[in-house]
Each structure stands twice: as structure tokens, then as C-alpha cells.
Write a structure and sequence with these properties.
The chain has a domain at 2-227: Amidase signature (AS) enzymes. Helix content is 36%, strand content 14%. It has 14 helices and 11 strands. It has an 11-stranded mixed β-sheet, sandwiched between helices. Strand 10 (416-423) and strand 11 (429-436) form a beta hairpin. Helix 4 (132-139) runs parallel beside helix 5 (156-162) and helix 8 (281-296) crosses helix 10. The relative contact order is 0.14. The structure holds glutamine (GLN). Glutamine binds next to loops. Residues 101-104, 130, 150-154, 182, 289, 403 line the site of glutamine (GLN). InterPro entries: Amidase, Amidase_CS, Amidase_dom, AS_sf, GatA. Keywords: ATP-binding, Ligase, Nucleotide-binding, Protein biosynthesis, Transferase. Belongs to the amidase family. GatA subfamily. This is Glutamyl-tRNA(Gln) amidotransferase subunit A.
Length: 452
């Protein structure tokens, strides 16, 4: 922990940490030393972590990188961070992110953007989002590992942009309790780490049934590390033709075919598959996620949490809500609340929200069919490109297209992992994604491990 504290204090250059918690870290590290000395140390004991600002941490500012939660210090600890701390992990600080996890470039944060530690010709690039602070901190060695959350790709896309590993588990595997809600039917937390083994160890510590989250699955937690044999002989890997998008760059095509070859060489059977509803995933996601967000964010009313606008004489409660929310939420969050409110409104509910839910069911069925046909995992690129320049991608629709390979996984509730898979021509990391059967994170991690 000592070795990292200097970095946390001086992490201004990347803007990855938004709050240092080195006092807490010192106490946790001392307790961890004690456990290690007593021979009672789980694998996470003494491991210095960064925690995404979306996780509520008791007595420590937890703002989801939003102005509306200005100064909010929860009186409770999220289930995930409690579990990690019980396992002996050490919290170095809170990590930057897109406001309320809405974004793909970490440029919507009230704390300002994060800088990717990878550079081309000194050009500042995005680390991706929304878990951009987590990705940058792990990639730049500002912690050993970090927590992330993934609603439509926010673990996997930043992992790919920074050359690290990130897994979004099956929906229900990790408790959402104490994590600031974005789109509750899609949100899952997961580890962001330097390699697959670390991901397996940390995921195991984060998982488990939690009665405080009604969607948390009551299933035993497997030993994910034990699944890492590297043996994938006889496994069937699906290559979905719908992910071969028009205009896909030659580099991404090559990344994908090289990955396919490696799996084949390792003894897997490669199968061409079809997921016919893929093209509707992005529009369905950008209806469902804002709809749920508009409902979840209704609680920020200027009374219960954080910021309240200064009011003028004669202002009533409506003015208080309006002024508080106009000041407290950034532009992207306001856009989501407006879109979400619109698609849920009486006249448009069936045309947008209900239709998106039907599309979601079809996307899920596409996956169920290929798994029933014997496919064990699906290989795709993680992102359509390498990291782009900060300030380069200002059109919201263009930004949403970044999530084209990742959102299907959330809509279907499946586990997905991004792993580093080489560099592009300018020397930037590129990632591959593997999608697994529900509840088979062990198998999925093992296929990823065979590619390392
Ligand atoms: N980029 C997507 C969005 O902005 C996904 C975000 C996430 O997974 N939290 O909604």
C-alpha cells in the first residue's frame, strides 16, 4: 500500500482518482498484515484497490461523479465493497467515471475527463467509459485492481482501450446493493484487473447471494481460479456473422481472426453462428437504459442527497426540483432523463419502451439458441476501434456506436469478458470479447485464459 500512496496523492496527470482514502488504506493494510502474519489470509488480503465512485463507501464521498451528489457521504457500505474489505482488500481511493455511469469516454464526469495512460505522439486519448478511472488506474499501476460496473459495456470497453482485463458477470451474480443505480435491469459490477487470474480471484470475492438485492441469485460461489486450466480442447467457440459490421476496419478484422486462430490452435472447434437480432440491440439499449435511468434518477430532488439550488423568494417546491436538477445534472444525464421520460410517457410507451422490451427478449433468445446448439463461448471484438482522442467524439449518437459489441451482453444478462489482444498500427491496445453461458463465468475465464 505504501508503494501506491505516492501515486494516489500525485495522480493529477491522469485524473483517475477523485478522492484519496489513504488513512483508511493504512488501517486496512495493518489489519491485513496481521491476518497474513496469523496465516489467515484470503487471496484478496492486503491487495490495494481503487473503487469506482459509483460504489457507496461508508463515510467516504461517493458522488457517482455527479454534481447533484455534491459532498454525499453514505452511511452504509455497498455489498461489493464490504465483501472485498472482509476479504482483506485495501481501498486506496475513489475512481473517476462518467456521471452516473452514462458515457463511453469518461468525459461526462463532474471531475473532468480521465486521461488514458497510453498515448500516440503525446496526444491525450480517452480511457473509455464509464469506468475510465478504474481502467486508467489499473493500466498505469495506480492500484493492483479496481472495481467497475457495466450497464452497456462500461467494464469491457475501457478495459479494451487501456490494455487490461475486465469481466461483467451474469446478471444477478454480484449484488447491486449500495451501487448507485443507472439502469437496474442491466447494471452489474465486476473486477478490472491486469490479467485473467486476478479477475477470477477478485470476482470470487465480489460474488454471492445478497438478500438486500432482490435480483441477486441464490447460487453457490464457484472457485473461479480453479477453473483456469488453460485446457479448451473440445470447446465450441461461436463466431457471430452479425458482428462483422459494414465498414469494420481491417485491423479489427485481423484481431478477430487472429483470436479465432489461437482458439483453434488450442483445440477448440470454431463454428459460424448467427445472432439475427443484433442490429436492434443498440436502439433497444438506448431506449431501455434511459427509461430506467429516468426513473432511478427521480430520487435526486434536492432534499435527500447532495446539492440543492439557491432559491429565490417565492420559489416553491417545483422550482426547487427544477433548479436543483438543472444545476446538478450534466448535459448527458439530462439528455438521458428526457429520452427516458419520453419513451415511458403514456402516448409513446408502446411504440418505444414496450417494443424495446420485445426486442430485448428476441436478443436473449438468439443467444439461448446458439448455446442450446452446443456453443460454449462466443468471440467478438470488444470495441469497433482503439481509444480515440479526448474531445474528438462530441456527437452523442457517434458515442453510442462505441457500445455496438457490448450492449447485447447486458440485454441478455450474460457474462462477458474483455481481454487485451495486441496493438493497432499506432501502438494502441485492442481488446477481444468473449461471451459465455449464464452462470458459467469459470468456463468463460478459462477460455480467456487460454488466449493470454
Ligand atoms: N456507454 C454506455 C452508456 O453510456 C454504457 C454505460 C455503462 O455500461 N455504464 O450507457
Amino acid at each position: 500500500t505504501g508503494a501506491y500512496s505516492k501515486e494516489v496523492e500525485a495522480s493529477g496527470a491522469l485524473n483517475a482518482y477523485v478522492e484519496g482514502t489513504l488513512n483508511i488504506a493504512a488501517d486496512q493494510a495493518k489489519a491485513a498484515d496481521q491476518r497474513i502474519a496469523e496465516g489467515d489470509a484470503p487471496d484478496m488480503c492486503g491487495i490495494p484497490l481503487g473503487i469506482k465512485d459509483l460504489f457507496c463507501t461508508k463515510g467516504v464521498k461517493s458522488q457517482a461523479a455527479s454534481g447533484i451528489l455534491d459532498g454525499f457521504k453514505p452511511e452504509y457500505e455497498s455489498t461489493v465493497t464490504s465483501k472485498l474489505f472482509d476479504a482483506g482488500a485495501v481501498m486506496l481511493g475513489k475512481l473517476n467515471m462518467d456521471e452516473f455511469a452514462m458515457g463511453s469516454s469518461n468525459e461526462t464526469s463532474v471531475y473532468g475527463n480521465v486521461v488514458n495512460p497510453w498515448k500516440v505522439d503525446d496526444r491525450d486519448l480517452t480511457p473509455g467509459g464509464s469506468s475510465g478511472g478504474s481502467a486508467a488506474a489499473v493500466a498505469a499501476d495506480l492500484c493492483v485492481a479496481a472495481t467497475g460496473t457495466d450497464t452497456g459495456g462500461s467494464i469491457r470497453q475501457p478495459a479494451a482501450f487501456t490494455g487490461i482485463t475486465g469481466i461483467k458477470p451474469t446478471y444477478g451474480r454480484v449484488s447491486r446493493w449500495g451501487i448507485v443505480a443507472f439502469a437496474s435491469s442491466l447494471d452489474q459490477a465486476g473486477p478490472m484487473t491486469k490479467d485473467v487470474r486476478d479477475a477470477a480471484i477478485m470476482l470470487e470475492a465480489m460474488c454471492g447471494h445478497d438478500p438486500k438485492d432482490s435480483t441477486s441469485a441464490d447460487l453457490p460461489v464457484p472457485n473461479f481460479e480453479a477453473a483456469l486450466t488453460g485446457d479448451i480442447k473440445g470447446k465450441t467457440i461461436g463466431i457471430p456473422k452479425e458482428y462483422r459490421m459494414d465498414g469494420m476496419s481491417a485491423e479489427i478484422e485481423k484481431l478477430w481472426s487472429d483470436g479465432t486462430e489461437m482458439l483453434k490452435d488450442a483445440g477448440a472447434e470454431i463454428k459460424d453462428i448467427s445472432l439475427p437480432h443484433t442490429k436492434y440491440a443498440l436502439p433497444a439499449y438506448y431506449v431501455i437504459a434511459p427509461a430506467e435511468a429516468s426513473s432511478n434518477l427521480a430520487r435526486y430532488d434536492g432534499v435527500r442527497f447532495g446539492h440543492r439550488a439557491k432559491l429565490d423568494a417565492g420559489d416553491g417546491i417545483t422550482e426547487m426540483y427544477e433548479k436543483t436538477r438543472a444545476e446538478g445534472f450534466g448535459a448527458e444525464v439530462q439528455r438521458r432523463v428526457m429520452v427516458g421520460t419520453y419513451v415511458l410517457s403514456a402516448g409513446f410507451y408502446d411504440a418505444y419502451y414496450n417494443r424495446a422490451r420485445k426486442v430485448r427478449a428476441l436478443i436473449k433468445q438468439d443467444f439461448e439458441k446458439v448455446f442450446a446448439d452446443g456453443v460454449d463461448a462466443i468471440l467478438t471484438p470488444a470495441t469497433p476501434s482503439a481509444a480515440f482522442g479526448l474531445g474528438e467524439n462530441m456527437d452523442p449518437i457517434q458515442m453510442y456506436l462505441n457500445d455496438v459489441f457490448t450492449v447485447t451482453v447486458n440485454l441478455a444478462g450474460l457474462p462477458g469478458i474483455a481481454i487485451p489482444a495486441g496493438l493497432d498500427a499506432s501502438g494502441l491496445p485492442l481488446g477481444l470479447q468473449l461471451i459465455g453461458r449464464p452462470w458459467e463465468e469459470g468456463d468463460l475465464l478459462n477460455v480467456a485464459y487460454s488466449l493470454e
